Every structure is written in C-alpha cells, then in structure tokens.
Description:
Elements: H1 3-18, H2 29-36, H3 55-61, E1 80-85, H4 89-105, E2 113-118, H5 124-133, E3 139-147, H6 153-172, E4 176-183, H7 186-191, E5 193-195, E6 198-199, H8 200-219
Parallel strand pairs: 1-2, 1-3, 3-4
Antiparallel strand pairs: 5-6
The structure holds the ligand Nc1c(NC[C@H](O)[C@H](O)[C@H](O)CO)[nH]c(=O)[nH]c1=O and ligand LTPLIIQW.
Keywords: Riboflavin biosynthesis, Transferase
Organism: Kalanchoe fedtschenkoi
Enzyme class: transferase
Amino acid sequence: xxxxxxxxxxxxxxxxxxxxxxxxxxxxxxxxxxxxxxxxxxxxxxxxxxxxxxxxxxxxxxxxxxxxxxxxxxxxxxxxxxxxxxxxxxxxxxxxxxxxxxxxxxxxxxxxxxxxxxxxxxxxxxxxxxxxxxxxxxxxxxxxxxxxxxxxxxxxxxxxxxxxxxxxxxxxxxxxxxxxxxxxxxxxxxxxxxxxxxxxxxxxxxxxxxxxxxxxxxxxxx
Length: 222
Ligand SMILES: Nc1c(NC[C@H](O)[C@H](O)[C@H](O)CO)[nH]c(=O)[nH]c1=O
Ligand SMILES: CC(=O)[C@@H](O)COP(=O)(O)O
C-alpha cells in the first residue's frame, strides 16, 4: 500500500469518526477492544475501496497510530560495512575504535563487520555506494575527519563527502550514515574523537544500528 493510499484511507477513517454510528465517544467498550486487538500493523488497515467499506470493517479500521522504530537490541543478524578515510588518521582511527566498541556493546557479531579504508573523505561516497549496492550489508557507516586549512579546499571536501554519503544511501537503498567530522581545527576534531565532546564514531555506529534495524524489521516489505 502506498503512503498516498494510507493517507486516503486515514482520512476515510477520520470522516467515519464523525458519522452517527462511529463517534469516538459513542464507541462501545467492545468496539474499543476490537480496535486494540488488531494483530498485524499492516493487514486489514486499508482495503482498496475505502469509500465503499462496510460498517463492520470500519469498526476494525479505527486504530492507534503506528510508530515504527529501529531496535538497538535485535542486532544479531545485522551486517555492517564501515568506510574509513585515512586522511587525518590520528583522528579517524579513534572514531573507528569508538564505532567498533559500540557495535560490540550492542552485540553485533565481529564477523558481520567489514572495514574498508579509503585515502580521504572525498573518496567515501563512491565506495559507500558500491558497498550498499552489493546487498551484503544492512547499513554502511562512513567515517572521516575534514579539518579546515588555508584555502577553500575544505568546503569542496566537506560538501563532496556529505553529498557522496547521501547519494550512496539514496542510490543503493541501504542506510549510509554520516560519521565525518567537519572541524575548524585539530582540537575540535580530537575532542570529538574520544575527547571532551565524546566520540562521534560511536554515536554514528548507534545511528547505523538503529537504521539497519528499522529497514530490516519494518521497511523491508514496503
Ligand atoms: N584535507 C582533507 C582531505 N583531503 C583529501 C581528499 O579527501 C581527497 O582524498 C583528495 O582530494 C583526493 O581525491 N580529506 C580528508 O578526509 N580530510 C581532510 O581534512
Ligand atoms: C580540508 C583540506 O583539504 C585541507 O587539508 C586543505 O588545506 P589547505 O586549504 O591549507 O590546502
């Protein structure tokens, strides 16, 4: 069912709530129980001819809003690729360590993680896209550290890295997570790679787990 169809169906339900038979306040206890006991999140939510739906099926269509969210617990069968830029390796290695620690903490199997090194952040996108399209991974985590120099080179690398990771995700359909630091100086970078401001590699790994789980457990049948 498309989102549009779901929305149409949703408005049909809303309209029915104002009708004589289906006012919310007038709903019997029995009806409320019926609503709560609908088993599958998708099955029976919307039939093709919403306008022609019978009174009986309408009562089973009034239901709570569904919230779909990735789990940080069911991680055992999730596979990840990590693309890491070697440029500013002093920083990126620490980001990678943070990411691997987090994967371990959340029970991702070591053999389900592949780490791919690239020269710099500019090169991350093309590799992430290839890995995403391989069908071998549930998410691709991209790690790099871009630090401002004297010229506009910084902006070119930052923009390319961000749009490269974004495109990789959109083109492959596999979540590609942006764990690339964009810093004015080395201090800012070190602080975010296990220093005063935490470890952004670790945070990005958590995002990768949540997105992998969301896709695997909720979005794969759409
Ligand atoms: N200056 C930084 C770079 N520059 C290198 C580029 O990423 C790229 O490898 C080169 O232009 C060849 O295509 N990379 C970083 O990751 N961080 C930097 O601060
Ligand atoms: C972000 C960079 O690529 C950086 O190393 C470039 O430094 P510069 O602008 O001084 O050439």
